[in-house]
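Supplementary Note 2. Why include the ligand at all?

Several targets in our set were suspected to adopt different conformations when bound, so apo predictions alone were not considered sufficient. For every target with a known small-molecule partner we therefore ran a joint prediction. The input for iron/sulfur cluster is given below.
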Amino acid sequence: MKPFSVFSLQDKQDLSKVASFEHSRFLAGGTNLVDLMKHQIEEPDQIVDLSSWQEAHQISESDHKVTIGALVTNTELADFAYRQPTLSLLSQALLAGATVQLRNRATTGGNLLQRTRCYYFYDTTKACNKREPGSGCAALDGFNRIHAVLGTSEHCIASHPSDMATAMTALDATVHTMNAAGEVRHIPVRELYTLPGDTPHIETQLGADELITAVSINKTARGTQIYQKVRDRSSYAFALVSVACAMHVKDGIIENINLAFGGVGSRPWHAKSAEDYLRGKSATEALFSQAADVELSAAKGSGGNDFKIPMLKRTLVHVLGQAASHQQQHPDHEGAIHVR
Ligand code: SF4
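The joint prediction is reproduced in token form.
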């Protein structure tokens, strides 16, 4: 591993004391960055260590909103969200991700910014436009079973790996940031990530000196919430496809619907076309199938991952059917149900 210096950030105001961000990386739990450094994919000259920044370890709440500090661990957040019916989708997604040990280390800010698990991104002997712009993409004609079918480009088909970010996308979370000049931004998580286009090495709209300080989520009533993850084994596996759904049905009509997909998009995928198609209509299996077709009309497989398109459709129809059925039996229910 290349030698680096360490700047210990005590408070977000300390950002202004960092000499340069050009070859710096923020270190939170380190569950992804340290691996990337060992593989010499990330070679920072300086680490900005966030572990002493106490304020960012807190979760605060008002009547209407929950604000999660950037350093709240995935375990702490899963536990908190489990006891909040309007956020239970988040708990389901977090507990479906990684392992207990990783969740104890991984943080809210770090989880949002984790990098893809594309095999070729981690193999420095292979071409990868994300790792080395202009070098090509070995996944296009390679083993691309885990890759994305939505939001891809001819330059990169990597999928975003985060379950948590998928749930936050469905819940319409807001990401709060601050840069070295003290400028604060409030970015809807649905707008945080950029599509790969011809610059797949750029993954978010954050600047190099811009630090995620917190994530907030409104405590809006959203009805029945389901996070369904399909993966190769029942633990410690990234999603092949996942569906994050919160749905409220009244008298058989879909009054409110929030949908996001994981494992299939170059970013956590807000299924807005499907939401728009479903809202205000009668909750039937035929409608759910049509909504899946609408959202997936632009989906494109690369051979090894073609199966994800019908798999996502079946998963979405199943999840919507389970949520609608539960809502019809328990019209005032707010929170999670688990489906198989
Ligand atoms: Fe690199 Fe993206 Fe191609 Fe994977 S899919 S090899 S991350 S350019």
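The first strand starts at residue 5 and ends at 8. The domain at 224-328 is CATH 3.30.390.50 (Enolase-like; domain 1). Comparable summaries for the other entries are listed in the accompanying table.
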